[in-house]
């Protein structure tokens, strides 16, 4: 029986760091898709992988001209549900990671979306179910798994017993490689740090 080879999408935010710590996958992918904060996301993800002994790969595909909102440093589209909305972003990330995962012999690709992400359609249980159906239907039969959907970020810290010093480097800013402290990503991170008494 073949062993299951696991990969994770690692952005360097609290949620994906928690999942990486709990899962200890064979490989972690960080994707530079043209987002403003790619440099810091790559740095943090590489640091985490070195600490955890996980192989780290960066996938670079510049899609900035397709983005909108703070992550693309551009105006939002009129249908945008939030300031950081990037059309079909999670769908894009799953596709790019799956393309690399095929080459790496990956059986399961894991992502970390939490309960508060269901504000967006691509942060819902239905989205991940449909994504898994589509990707696993195709050659390679990779499974898309998001085991964190029923939890809030601070609950993941407890669930996986993540050391707080590992989370101290997390980066969730949507605007800058140095945290702005004001965007929705920074606000969420500050709230989570307060909830886990990390201030």
UniProtKB/TrEMBL annotation:
Please give the Gene Ontology molecular function terms for this protein: ligase activity
**InterPro entries per the UniProt record, alphabetical:** QueC, Rossmann-like_a/b/a_fold
Name the keywords, alphabetized. Answer: ATP-binding, Ligase, Metal-binding, Nucleotide-binding, Queuosine biosynthesis, Zinc
Is Zinc tagged as a keyword?
Answer: yes
Q: In which pathway does it act?
A: Purine metabolism; 7-cyano-7-deazaguanine biosynthesis
Which reaction equation describes what this protein catalyses?
7-carboxy-7-carbaguanine + NH4(+) + 2 ATP = 7-cyano-7-carbaguanine + 2 AMP + 2 diphosphate + 2 H(+)
Q: Which SUPFAM superfamilies match?
A: Adenine nucleotide alpha hydrolases-like
Q: Does the keyword Lipoprotein apply?
A: no
Pfam families in alphabetical order? QueC
Give the superkingdom in one word. Answer: Bacteria
EC assignment: 6.3.4.20
Coiled coil regions, renumbered to chain: none
Q: Which family is this protein grouped under?
A: Belongs to the QueC family.
In Swiss-Prot or TrEMBL terms, this protein is called 7-cyano-7-deazaguanine synthase
Which organism's genome codes for this protein?
A: Flavobacterium chungangensis
């Amino acid at each position: 029986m073949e062993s299951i080879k696991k990969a994770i999408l690692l952005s360097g935010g609290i949620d994906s760091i928690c999942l990486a710590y709990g899962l200890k996958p064979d490989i972690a992918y960080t994707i530079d898709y043209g987002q403003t904060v790619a440099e810091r996301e790559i740095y943090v993800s590489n640091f985490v992988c070195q600490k955890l002994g996980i192989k780290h790969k960066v996938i670079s595909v510049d899609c900035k001209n397709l983005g909108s909102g703070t992550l693309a440093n551009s105006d939002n589209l009129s249908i945008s549900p939030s300031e950081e909305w990037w059309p079909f972003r999670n769908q894009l990330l799953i596709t790019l990671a799956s393309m690399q995962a095929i080459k790496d012999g990956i059986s399961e690709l894991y992502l970390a979306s939490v309960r508060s992400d269901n504000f967006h359609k691509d942060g819902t249980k239905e989205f991940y179910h449909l994504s898994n159906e589509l990707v696993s239907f195709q050659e390679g039969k990779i499974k898309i798994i998001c085991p964190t959907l029923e939890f809030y970020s601070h609950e993941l810290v407890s669930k996986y017993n993540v050391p707080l010093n590992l989370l101290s480097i997390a980066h969730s800013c949507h605007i800058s490689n140095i945290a702005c402290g004001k965007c929705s990503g920074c606000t969420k991170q500050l709230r989570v740090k307060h909830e886990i008494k990390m201030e």
